[in-house]
Write a structure and sequence with these properties.
- Helix content is 15%, strand content 38%.
- It is mostly beta strands and 143 residues long.
- The protein has one domain: Jelly Rolls (Sandwich).
- The strands form 3 sheets. Strands 1-2-3-10-5-8 form a 6-stranded antiparallel sheet, with no helix packed on it.
- The longest helix is centred in the N-terminal third of the chain and has 21 residues.
- It starts with a helix and ends in a 5-residue tail after the last strand.
Length: 143
């Protein structure tokens, strides 16, 4: 019984070592005070990248909308995954309004056209995981 337990433990250690060796190395830590905010071409929109280059490939970044901002209909080329952190954001997709409180999540895949409104008196803050170079592509308004 002890030999079997020893072999099992040794096997688990080998598997654990292989898993650690296969893990990507490095850590990214960005304190709130170290964020560098950049105004976007759309007034009232700013971003702060924390990992990757937003213009060149996949990236992680904060996105801030000023209170009262209403975006025009648009899409983004990369699939992206968003968590809301502050403010009252309303996302409109295919005419359906989604009211998103802080802590909400949404994914926009396949160049999904949408608009967004930052309602109330508080700026809206989001964290974005973009899977390619970030862009904003205007869409023609639907009649």
């Amino acid at each position: 019984m002890r030999r079997r337990d020893a072999l099992l433990a040794a096997g688990l250690l080998v598997l654990a070592a292989a898993a650690v060796a296969a893990s990507p190395k490095g850590t990214t830590v960005t304190a709130k005070g170290a964020l560098v905010w950049t105004d976007a071409a759309i007034p009232g929109v700013a971003s702060a990248a924390v990992e990757g280059d937003m213009a060149k490939g996949s990236s992680h970044f904060y996105l801030r909308y000023a209170a009262g901002l209403v975006t025009p209909l648009h899409h983004h080329s990369p699939d992206h995954y968003v968590t809301t952190l502050a403010g009252a954001l309303t996302l409109v997709v295919d005419g359906k309004e989604h009211r998103l409180a802080p802590g909400s999540y949404f994914a926009l895949l396949g160049k999904t056209a949408h608009t967004a409104r930052c309602e109330g008196n508080e700026d809206c803050l989001m964290f974005v995981d973009a899977r390619g170079p970030w862009d904003v592509v205007p869409e023609a308004a639907k009649p």
